Amino acid sequence: MQRLRNFKMSRRSVLKGIAGAALGLPMLDVMLNGHGEAFADTHHNSSGLPQRFLVCFGGQSLGCDGDRVHNMYVPERVGADYDLKTALVPLGLYNNIKDEVTVVSGLRIATANGGAIPSGGRSDDFHISSLSPLFSGVRSGAGSTVQGITSDQIVADQIADGTTFRSLNYRAQASWYLTVSAPYGRDLMSYRQDGNRVVAQPGTVSPRLAYNSLFSNFSSPDPSELDRRNFLLAGRKSVIDLVRQSYEELIPQLGAADRHRLNQHLHEIRDLERRIQAIPPAQIGACAQTEDPGEDPAIGGNQTVVSGNDFDTSAGYSSEDDRARIFCDLIYMAFACDMTRVGTLMFTMAQSHMSAYPFLGESFDIHEVGHSRLGTKGVSDVIAWHMKHFAYLLAKMRDTNEGSGNMLDNSAVVFLHEGGHGLDPATGNQYSSHSTENMACLIAGRAGGLAPGRHVVAEGKHPANVLISAMNAVGVQTDTLGEVSGAIPGLFGA
Amino acid sequence: MRNLVAVLSLTLICMVGCDGRLDLGEAKAPAGPSNQSNNANNTNTNNTNIEINTGVIGVAFSGARRLSRDEYDNTLRDLLEDGTRPGALLLPEDSVDPFDNDYRTQYASMTLIEAVEALADSASERLLADTARRDRIVGCSPRGPDDAVCMRRFIETFGRRAMRRALRPVEVERFLALQSFAVEDNNFYSAVDLVVRAMLQQPEFLYRVERGIAVEGRPGVFRLNHWEMASRLSYLLWGTKPDDWVLDLASEAKLGTSEEIRAAATRMLEDPRAVARVERFHAMWLGYHQIPHPTELATALRAESDALVRRVIFEEKRSWLDLFRVEETFVGDYLVEHYGLSAPSAPAPRWVAYGDSGRRGILSHGSFLSVAAKFDDTSPTQRGLLIRNRLMCEEIEPPPPTVDVDQQPHHETSPCKADAYAGYMQSGCGSCHGQMDPIGFGLENYDRAGRYRAHDNGYPECAIEGSGELIGIGGFKGPAELGQVLIDNDVVDRCLVTQVFRFAMGQRETKDDEALIDALHKKFRDKGYLFDELLLDFVTMESFSYRMEE
Description:
By secondary structure, chain A is α/β, with parallel strands linked by helices. Chain A has helices at residues 2-23, 93-96, 131-136, 151-159, 207-215, 223-250, 256-277, 320-336, 357-360, 366-369, 375-398, 463-473; strands at 52-58, 79-80, 101-107, 168-171, 191-194, 197-200, 342-346, 401-402, 405-406, 411-417, 439-444, 454-457, 480-481, 484-485.
């Protein structure tokens, strides 16, 4: 215990030292990293500011079955000052946040089309099969999960050095919402390498937990609370320290497979320990503790039917509107405080069975809207719900000064959709929501010379080409993601 | 303690020769060197009265299994009297196929680690806020914040319950060091809080870690110790941690012989948690763990099936095959009306005779019949697949990647389902669909809520013939005959044993496990298909006391 005591005292004095130092500083144009040091490593652009990489996802295609309108998403006008259709109307908010967003159209993911699955392609059966090529650039496999390491994890390997969180993975849709079955990977968008396997990193669904994780060791501005806070923090650290010791003692006694399993766990505990030990970011500039979101909204009931007269309009919804906003706030602040530089945000699961009723006023779950009488207009209204939150997040980033510019200048943010609209090779239907033809996505930010605010037609390109561009933009020098090669030069400025 | 295993293998190779306890009868094991263990002092592994048979066969793999969400919540309930079931909200989803405890699908992630910490913190917070419960769990009244006697007693008792084994002295000391926080805070319970939180994050709380005693000359094979047997039994039979009396048996080295194990397991099967566990096993196995109907109907259907399982297995201890043959069902007016049965009115559920309705047993229940629906109706394909997978333990190739399984089959001119599905048989799909669809069509008279119907939903012109066939086995009409066909052809009983194996071991069987399953099946058959005997025979088979390291 003597050791712990000493440690706690020394830590307390460190905190006081930092607080004192921060007080003396004016608003800086030099940012500090999580350790209170000026940025000096190579993973920053010439301005010395951290680069951020974020991938967002909406679990729906762009159009509706049988509707000859493929989408109300892709602008008529190509290039700058593009027009906003139904799905993207919210990008007109916040003083035209669309000026920070490029729409990339003309994308597609190739399908087996009766033969073998092509590289970077998918099987003809739609659901799930688009996720592997979409997130990892690797063709879909027999199983239901993503076959390759995803872009966020490749980026994290290169630019996460020294940040408290290697990456943040959040999911707003709180539950699968179907009484039968399970998501089988529709809830996952981040995968990392584990030996010769690719393993999923499930997202945090509890805003409360995510909030605590980010801010539990922020120092209190009220000096009278500081001692109590430090006492509690010391207790927490002792607990984790004890837990870590138990793992460290146990693991060498185990067989190879168990050693591997528990080592994974130990690795995450050490990471947690490191996060707790990390000196809280100096709350200067935009970095400040986010408002406490309170307890999590209640988890809504399951759907028994996905549409129609028996549809339960109170089921399938857990205040995702609030959850999405809170997660946007948290990701934003984690970026502002340089607690992380990499994130994924799954607004809705693939083949989402979240109720569309709360924002659409129609008795359908989101997936069923794509098969409904509501047409591509209905689908676009659902996408617009996602865009409302996306615009909110981007505006916060744009309106945050960093160096001589703003946070978006040092970011690459991509929004991907589960599918496009058009030919379904499994059925031959020409106007199907089960299609990866006529796909489109968004890329925002100006990191690495990205030139947003335009509609770029990238005919025949793969969504992974957009991810590769975003990876390049934040300084990851790669020409490939999985089986897909090449950035899209048109996304960058001259 | 890092060298524990090495030390053990030097000092505790404590084998007596094969004494005929080998349950896989036929195999004659070579007699190993023998001596008797005297190592009663090692509370961590407790190898007293452990016999090791170096010739043991049929040993299954076992790795560190993380508690499923359900097991976590059960364990919290029994450890802390905390029935809030918070794990279901925060822990990553378990993979379900059809059981939720396949440890090979588990991975640690940041989300998991943070959830485990948050769960521990909030459980401790709830405990301390409820002083009566807190005092029961702590078990002594501290004389002051520095009362080390009370703290030590709490750590030893609570630690044994949480980690499911006695703590080693060095571990107790480590937890005891947290008492300095109580002194600093002048509050004994500030340290209790930390102890509880640390316990609930221990690897041996969160995972079921088995090590065992290395079997000489058998690399990778280990004999379980008494503590490990206690957990194996309780998580299999109860889905939760062992009670104190089970841990006491382990502590007294009384979970070593098959007689001791049978006695303990027999007593455990009398506990209501065993009944709930067996009901849950059947619900997950047959897929009605979650029923896709409004709450009132779903609850009534689940209660109907649970009652049948309870009656056959526990109350009347009948042949388990009667699950498919019982001629009455447990329903109140609500379900009597739902099914269209005829019975005198009574609101509360009671046993009502099926008569000549064509229904018998669990395959007639709306719970089971609700499972394999698609396109807002029954799916003959999905029902056939369910029966092949779950009741016959057969795998069917998934459709080729060029097929869109979200497209409803249709016929150019006929609105009838039978005609639409007939298209599958004429194409290349027939080789697989032929194994499934004809089974489903034998249940088509029963809609996805289990109600009888004479024609397709909404199409009076599409009369349902209701005849089905298990290709290569035989024809049937309706759930009663299907159950009988499965029984007559010795399919379902062998498959059940396989499913119990998967549920118990948290993984699919390997080829090497087939001998064990066969041996168990033979006992099951010879004893008249008594499910509780199947469980008892499983846990007392010699191989159940061993593990194969991965």
